[in-house]
Amino acid sequence: MKRIVCKNFGPVDELIWEETDDLSPMPNEVVIEIKAAALNFPDFLIVQGLYQFQPPLPFTPGNEGAGIVKSVGSDVSKHKPGDRVYFMSAIGAFSEEIALDQNLVFAMEDTMSFEVAASYQLAYGTSFHALVQRGSIKEGDEVLVLGASGGVGLAAIDIAKAYGARVVAGVSNDEKGEICKTYGADEVVIYGSEKLDKDAQKAFSTDLKSKSIKGGYDIIFDPIGDCYAEPAFRSIGWKGRYLVIGFAAGEIPKIPLNLALLKGASICGVFWGTFTGLEPQINKNNIDTLNKMVSEEKIKPLISQTFPMKEAVSAIKMIGNRGVKGKVVLVNQ
Predict the structure, then answer these.
(1) Angstrom distances, CA of residue 153 to CA of 93, 127, 177
(2) How confident is the model at residue 51 (pLDDT cuts 50, 70, 90)?
(3) Given a cut of 80, is residue 52 above it in pLDDT?
(4) Is 240 found in the same domain as 213?
(5) Is 290 among the domain residues?
(6) Is 86 in the active site?
(7) Spatial contact of 102 and 78, defined as CB atoms under 8 Å apart
(8) CATH number at residue 39
(9) What pLDDT, in 10s, does the model give residues 144-191?
């Protein structure tokens, strides 16, 4: 089989598409012939050694995918060869095969494509946990989503609208804004692609406030951070929840805590990976709910592009340059 390999933390260009031995399962493992694997922003960080989690070298990046069970270990009871499945893993998805504990592998809906099954577990799992467990979303809430045209951003719009919320989407350009509108965003704010100076931050905050019909947002969903975080926080409503998802725009922001005091607001960290390990049953319930919402077409994951698996380097560089709208999926042909 072949796989993408990171031999040293460094530039994405140093990843290689390498031949290696086919896999054999341990007693509790399932070997999956991977048909599709989804790209996420942490894939860009982890190969450079910039993510919170640094796997031992060498390793294959990628943590969600779908395919067909090729073989199973002697103790496996949940799956059999030929099953169509999707999976979650810390690493290893950008490959032609993966071996995983049977508990990390899940049966697919018969009507679902491999591309869709591979594409929504992490982004939608993150956004669902953020909005439901951390944000306590309810019908009638007003939600501001920053970085709204990316994978987790569109997932947040999709889920928030399914819960009956009003959504304002913050994006860097008009094209991304149109995508958000097709996903149900009620209003769009364009903040541009350049870093915001103090005057631009004030203008951004004013613009955000003007789009709120409540005078402030119940929930702010922020996966980008940097210079956009403080002006966004200034638009939060009384007892609002500010969800810290990540820092895709670069810098980790510093927010004056008096802003939280004045609004009675909460700053809530969202780290889905740790949540899945510490609260597995709640996560399973979340994924079951999402699967049902997908099958009932209450949410519709957007796959904007597909790449051959061997061209993963180009796809990872694109997501690092914030050039991705929706989800990018790598496929084995």
Answers:
(1) 22, 8, 12
(2) confident
(3) no
(4) yes
(5) no
(6) no
(7) yes
(8) 3.90.180.10
(9) 999 998 889 999 999 999 999 999 999 999 999 998 998 899 999 999
SS3 331: strand
| Torsion, Cα of 267, 218, 320, 89 (10° steps) | 70
Whether 221 contacts 144, CB under 8 Å: yes
Identity of the amino acid at 136: S
Q: Is residue 53 part of a domain?
A: yes
Three-class SS state of 4: strand
Indicate whether 291 belongs to any domain.
no
Tokens 């990316």, located at residue: 150
For the four alpha carbons of 93, 323, 10 and 249, in that order, the dihedral sign comes to negative
Q: Which residue has the tokens 């993510």?
A: 51
| Full residue range of the structural domain in which residue 251 is found | 122-273
d(C-alpha 137, C-alpha 160), whole Å: 8
Annotated active-site residue in 51, 163, 228, 242? 51
Q: Specify the pLDDT at position 296.
A: 86
Q: How many folded domains does the chain comprise? A: 2
Which pairs with CB-CB distance under 8 Å and at least 24 residues apart come from 23-28?
23/97, 23/98, 23/99, 24/71, 24/99, 25/71, 25/72, 25/73, 25/76, 25/99, 26/73, 26/99, 27/73, 27/74, 27/75, 27/76, 28/73, 28/75, 28/76, 28/101, 28/102
Residue 186's CATH number: 3.40.50.720
Amino acid present at 246: G
The DSSP string of 134-196 is: IT---TT-EEEEESTTSHHHHHHHHHHHHTT-EEEEEESSHHHHHHHHHTT-SEEEE--SSPP
pTM value is 0.80
| Tokens 């949940």, located at residue | 78
Q: For residues 116 and 96, what is the distance between their CA atoms, to the nearest angstrom? A: 18
Q: Estimate the share of the chain in helix, then strand, then coil, as percent rounded to the nearest 5.
A: 35, 25, 40
Cα–Cα distance list, 1 to 98, 100, 138 (Å): 10, 16, 47
Task: Check if the beta carbon of residue 95 is closer than 8 Å to that of residue 3.
Answer: yes
Q: Is the dihedral of CA 51, 56, 62, 66 positive or negative?
A: negative
Please tell me whether residue 211 adopts helix, strand or coil conformation.
helix
